[in-house]
Design a protein that fits this description.
By secondary structure, the chain is α+β, with helices and mostly antiparallel strands. It has 10 helices and 6 strands. Helix 5 packs antiparallel against helix 6 and helix 9 runs antiparallel to helix 10.
């Protein structure tokens, strides 16, 4: 009896030791990363050093009235929640590559036979092995989807930069409108003084004074409206920087930076076809759809499983190997899976072609708006504004001498102001068109917060004072 008991204890000890050894080894198991997974992790590591070193937000640049446009762009990119959300989505997609290429978890099994008494106890281990090539194809699908997420992150970064630029330029040109309108108000006040002086000596009637006062009051209301709209635009600028409602308003730059004029739109369009992150994201979706077709085709291959059980009650211990093989017999299901994958591939390719057409149309439209603004600025600076100033000066002299009536002076003044406001509108259109073009091109993100490896890009800001926006105002 003692011998049987010792043998039973030895068997249980051997089986238990075997299972414990297997369970101890399982947590340390690691798969082999695919090429796409390794590249994605290197890319994530490089970008994390700039965007989230140590998993934390880096120190933000201190914004002052002397800060450059690049400082404001960097601040927004590092602080904007929409960019961070796209970044985390991308990191999550990289982890899905590991999940897709990994084998299923092994299963611990237990079986026993009972016939009036416990006749066998068989613990064991079972492992499922997907059909040949299935895991690799699944990893390729996940890798392509991860690249699409990466380009979505880039797009979010560039959209954030574009929103900052829009608010930045709109705020500047609103201040220019305020300056011109206030100057017009001073001209109206001067004209009122001229009308009073002429009325006192009997050269004009009181009606001229009243007309001057009407113009002055109209301009005062217009200034109030512009000042009120400035607060709304400043709130928008604050939002583009990722600042909450409780944060103080950001400082307004004293010097604004404008885009250089020597641009080659043909080169920029070719760059857009290469660097546009929306196109590249759609290209990644096409690759993902193609990999899904290959994965669906591999569904014809059966999956297998292997296992081993040990009967601890037998002496000597009885080992029972197990094996199973799935039978993919439902041909209509397999055909449907392949057809679905091919249809998704066709849809992805069509979306890519549609976006290429939209890019060409949008680029042509924004290029036209830029060229139109350039022609308007040239006309206003070189001819219209100088002549309007000369016309107003002549009208004022003629009014003092009694040769010109009030209507002519007021008309000359309004013409000058209209041209000055047209100049501001054209300058605004020029810069905002270039903001849209830079978003279409989507080359290098702003310095100090680059989200991508270096590529050929088009610089769209940073040449301070390349055009004197106040010239002719």
């Amino acid at each position: 009896m003692k011998l049987k008991h010792s043998l039973r204890v030895a068997r249980w000890s051997m089986v238990g030791s075997l299972l414990m050894a297997v369970l101890a080894l399982l947590p340390g198991c690691k798969g082999t990363p695919t090429k796409g997974e390794a590249q994605a992790r290197r890319q994530a590591q490089e970008i994390a050093q700039r965007y989230r070193p140590g998993g934390r937000q880096p120190a933000l640049p201190t914004l002052t009235t002397n800060s450059s446009l690049g400082d404001f762009l960097t601040y927004a990119l590092l602080n904007q929640p929409s960019v961070e959300a796209a970044y985390d989505d991308w990191l999550a997609s990289i982890e899905r590559i590991t999940t897709a290429r990994s084998l299923p978890d092994p299963q611990l099994t237990f079986q026993t036979d009972i016939q009036n008494a416990l006749t066998s106890i068989m613990p064991g281990l079972m492992m499922l092995f997907p059909g040949a090539g299935k895991l690799r194809a699944s990893a390729e699908v996940a890798s392509a989807e991860s690249q699409a997420r990466y380009f979505a992150f880039q797009t979010a970064s560039l959209q954030s930069a574009s929103e900052v630029k829009r608010a930045y330029y709109q705020l500047h040109f609103l201040d220019e409108k305020l300056r011109v309108t206030r100057e017009n108000g001073r001209l109206a006040a001067d004209l009122e003084q001229l009308a009073r002086a002429q009325n006192e000596v009997g050269k004009v009637t009181l009606q001229d004074v009243l007309r001057a006062q009407i113009e002055r009051d109209r301009l005062a209301t217009e200034i109030t409206d512009l000042e009120d709209s400035r607060s709304a635009l400043l709130a928008r600028f604050k939002t583009t920087l990722g600042l909450g409602s409780e944060a103080p308003p950001p400082p307004i730059p004293q010097h604004f930076e404008f885009t250089p004029a020597n641009l080659s739109f043909e080169t920029m369009f070719q760059t857009a076809l290469t660097n546009n992150t929306t196109l590249r994201s759609l290209e990644a979706e096409v690759r993902s759809a193609h990999a899904s077709v290959l994965l669906a085709q591999k569904a014809r291959r059966p999956d297998g499983s292997l296992g081993l059980m040990a009967d601890a009650k037998m002496s000597p211990v009885l080992y029972r190997p197990q094996a199973s093989l799935s039978l993919p017999v439902w041909r209509d299901k397999l055909a449907a899976q392949i057809a679905e994958a091919r249809a998704n591939q066709g849809a992805a390719q069509a979306r890519l072609s549609d976006e290429q057409l939209n890019l060409a149309a949008a680029f042509a439209e924004q290029s036209f708006l830029y060229r139109e603004a350039e022609r308007s600025l040239e006309l206003l600076n070189d001819r219209l504004l100088p002549k309007a100033r000369q016309s107003l000066e002549i009208a004022r002299i003629g009014y003092l001498s009694g040769q010109i009536d009030f209507f002519n002076v007021n008309d000359a003044e309004r013409t000058l102001v209209a041209f000055e406001l047209d100049h501001i509108e054209a300058a605004t259109q020029r810069e905002l068109a270039l903001v849209e073009i830079s978003l279409l091109v989507q080359g290098l993100p702003p310095s100090r917060a680059g989200m991508a490896p270096p590529k050929t890009g088009v610089r769209t800001s940073g040449a301070r004072g390349s055009r004197k926006m106040g010239g002719g105002m």
